[in-house]
Design brief:
Length: 299
């Protein structure tokens, strides 16, 4: 007998709760997402048609997706996309999955752009730069979520997005095309290695910041995400140290460096920024009151 959407929601919500330790609301939403993908319908359609039966082919397709999720594969990879800051981004196992925590970093960048635009210096610009255009560098761009969101909200800015992974950059370029965002330039670079003498008004990064032996790397969604985009040395700060050490030579006068970091790393990151002669060093709290991002500017 064919199963209805309502029956599937009821039985598989419980299966996800049990297998993955999800709360009931999250489990239900994930089952709905899988049904939407298989049936190519909206969530409102599922609400309005709980009696909708799945045919044999739809049932088979749904079971394949459900089993992937029961095995722990992130729902974002199964669906191939994730919403971030109101935009939908394609994601693959070559990229991190954009998370709500990182929206704070984007908010900080957008907040600083109008402040900086009033005192831009007439520095020489390379090919592709608009005269006097605000220049922003997103390091370790992954899916391009940070760079493209900034570019979307500040269309007159020139945004550069770099990543050491060619596969990740391919995803970011695809997202730029899908979102019709043209003011982003992509470059394959291991941090600053390919940037030569380019200078930027803002450098922003959500770099790897998890300690290499952290047990969380073997749990949940992160098991499926690229390890090189997650872990960074014994204390998780190797890449942040490298970025802070080199950022000053790639920032214009009064330029800002803004970083996301771990929930317990703010004090260490502030110390690193001060040690590299950054001023106006600060940390910003997320909605849970956790110091999630830190930054400073060059004098």
């Amino acid at each position: 007998m064919p199963l209805t959407a309502q029956t599937i929601l009821s039985q598989d919500q419980t299966r996800l709760e049990t297998a993955l330790g999800l709360d009931s609301s999250t489990a239900r939403i994930e089952v709905q997402c899988l049904l939407q993908q298989v049936l190519n319908v909206t969530r409102s359609y599922l609400f309005a048609h709980p009696e909708r039966s799945l045919n044999e082919a739809e049932t088979a397709s749904y079971q394949v997706l459900l089993q992937r999720r029961l095995n722990g594969e992130p729902i974002a990879y199964i669906q191939g996309e994730r919403e971030f800051f109101g935009l939908n981004f394609r994601v693959t196992p070559a990229t991190l999955i954009p998370r709500p925590d990182t929206e704070l970093l984007v908010e900080l960048v957008l907040k600083h752009i109008p402040i900086l635009s009033s005192h831009l210096l007439p520095l020489p610009r390379g090919e592709g730069w608009g005269e006097g255009a605000l220049s922003i560098l997103d390091m370790g761009t992954g899916s391009g979520a940070i760079a493209l969101t900034i570019a979307h909200h500040r269309p007159k800015a020139e945004v550069w997005a770099c990543d050491a992974s060619a596969s990740a950059l391919a995803v970011a370029k695809e997202n730029a095309q899908r979102l019709n965002i043209s003011n982003v330039h992509f470059i394959e670079s291991n941090w600053f290695s390919a940037l030569r003498e380019q200078h930027f008004d803002i450098i922003v990064s959500n770099p790897p910041y998890i300690a290499a032996d952290d047990l969380h790397l073997s749990q949940g969604d992160v098991r499926f995400e690229p390890l090189t985009a997650l872990a960074s040395g014994v204390d998780g700060l190797d890449d942040i140290r490298q970025i802070i050490k080199q950022a000053g030579t790639h920032l214009v006068s009064k330029g800002w460096l803004l970083l996301e970091h771990g929930y317990d790393q703010a004090a260490q990151v502030r110390e690193l920024l001060l040690g590299a002669d950054f001023i106006e060093v600060f940390s910003a709290k997320d909605l849970s009151g956790i110091e999630r991002c830190s930054g400073g500017r060059i004098s």
